[in-house]
Structure formats: C-alpha cells, structure tokens
Input
Amino acid sequence: MPPGQVGVNASIGSALWRGIDIDQARAAARRDAGGMQAPPLATHAAVRIIRQEHAALAAMLRSIVMLLEQHRRKGTLPDFAVLRAMLFYVDEFPEQRHHRKETELLFPKLRARTPMSRDLLDKLDNDHAWGERRIRHVEHALLAFEMLGEPRREAFEAAMGKYVDFYLEHMAMEEREILPLAERVLSDDDWRELDEAFGQNRDPLTGHVPDLAYNALFTRIVNSVPAPIGLGPSL
Ligand SMILES: [Fe+2]
Ligand SMILES: [Fe+2]
Output
C-alpha cells in the first residue's frame, strides 16, 4: 500500500473525515446555491446532524464535479470504479437515511405544528420522492460513459451537474427556511424523537467510524479521491 494511504483497519475516522472542512464545504455550497445562510448556533442534535450531513453531501458532490473538470481538461478518462463508489455513497447514506428521515419524521412534525411553509414542504417532499429516480439516472449516465467512452462524457457531465445543482438548492432551502422554522415550532418531545432518529444515521462523512460492511467502500474513497474529500492529490 503506497505511503500516506490508509487501510481498511486504519483509523478511518481520523483520516477522511479530517479531510472535510465543513465550513469550507458549506461556504462553497453557499456560493453555488446562491446563498445558503450562515448557520445559527444549532440548539438540537438533529439540526446539527442535518447541517453536517448537508455539508458532507455538498463536499462529495463538489468533488465529483472537480474530478470531472480535471479529466475533461486533460482529455483523460476518470477512474470509473471510484466514481461508482462516490455515487453509491450518495445513494446509500443521503438518499436512504437523511432524506427519508426528513420526509418520514421531520416534515410531518412540522405540518402538525404549523400551517407555515406548506408549499415548500410539499416541494421538498416531492424532491425526496424523486431522489431515487434522479440518482439512477446519473448512475446510468455514468455507466454509459464507462461503456461507450468519449461520446457519452458530455451527457454524464450534464446529468451530474444537474443533480448537483438540484441538491445544493434543495439543501439551501431546508437550511434557510425549514430548520429555523423547526427550531421555532417543534416541542421538546418532537426534538427528543428527532435527535434520537438522526443520531442513528452515523454518516461516515460526518465523522463517524463506518460500520464494518462499509469499511472497504470508504477506504477506497479516502485513498482515491482528491482533497477536500479524500487523501488523493489535490485537483
Ligand atoms: Fe432533504
Ligand atoms: Fe436535508
């Protein structure tokens, strides 16, 4: 194993996750999304976790875009296995855990407590409902690029770019509108349940040591992906 890389059993929690500068990722996401507000001090664990998971997803998505830009400039093909691993992470953690818990737990509690922001909650729920189809579309575009090569590079870049813009805007709206509203209207009992539920997510990109089953996946990402996500050379 080349020097500087971490193995499956190495301290993943202190390698990849140290590489993510949450504030930097958030600032970058703010720029891209046209103004994700500076986060107020989160008073509840669930809000803190949601913000951290947004920053991790934003950092991962931006790294994919940076990778693609670099390969386009050089006229080289990307490491498709690494790109597949990165998209698998997006599918496995943000899609399956983060967004699902917002739709199944956070948003119903908000609807029960206030008539405010109903249209926005409907829109965000709709975004979540279509999330699986969106990521499948991107994964298929990646497969086409891998199978057919150069003629499908542009289509994959376009699909990826659209997906990234969509999610940065989605997260910015949640941070700008929904989390402050939740802080205002939810009860202590609501927060106990939300803190417990989001506390179980344990997304490795927010500083948690991955479950055994995910070690190999995250080791691969750590060692192959450029900073700020991984330990690979910076772009
Ligand atoms: Fe969401
Ligand atoms: Fe979210």
Observations:
- The CA atoms of residues 113 and 186 lie 7 Å apart.
- Residues 50, 54, 98, 102, 171, 174 surround fe (ii) ion (ligand 2) (CB under 6 Å).
- The domain at 8-224 is CATH 1.20.120.520 (Four Helix Bundle (Hemerythrin (Met), subunit A)).
- Confidence is low (pLDDT under 50) at residues 1-26, 32-38.
